[in-house]
Amino acid sequence: MIEARVTGVADLRRELAALPGKLRVRAVRNALAAGARLVRNAARSAAPVLSIGDPAVQAGRRKPGTVRKAISVRTSKLARRRGDVGVFVNVRPAKAGQRGAKNPNDPFYWRFIQFGWNPASGHDRFGRASRRERRRLNRVGVAKRVPGVKFLEAGAAQLGAALQAIMPKLQAAIAKLNTPKAPPP
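Request: output the structure for the sequence above.
Response:
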């Protein structure tokens, strides 16, 4: 579990309440996104990249760097529906009409990289393996579980630094919005 403490929230809320709604939302979202970019960059640097010699790359089914490029900062729809502002870092899926294992630009396999997987061996003609067969293969050492890389957790480790980046950005945005513009000459 990752925990962060923030001080000065009451002062910040007073300053934000003085701003108009649209500007307040934009200032908070931009500051949150600036912190989330630190998390995204750490996750990208920890994400593995397929090598050119990988059989899936040579067959044209995968492209090197697909998962790394798909790690992005996005605005949270759930937070917006609740009336809040939020951003999150995750692997962005391919567009709706372009999803699937046959598209080399779809990073659908990021879950296997992040969480690990059990190798496919001992399957029947439909691609299914019985539970008994999987246990037997695990006992004899043929189908050992492949552990995950946990690249998103490497990004989450940067949440403290992200919080430190959010506060100055937010204070600068508030100061900019609160300063009156000069009258035209």
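The mean pLDDT is 83.
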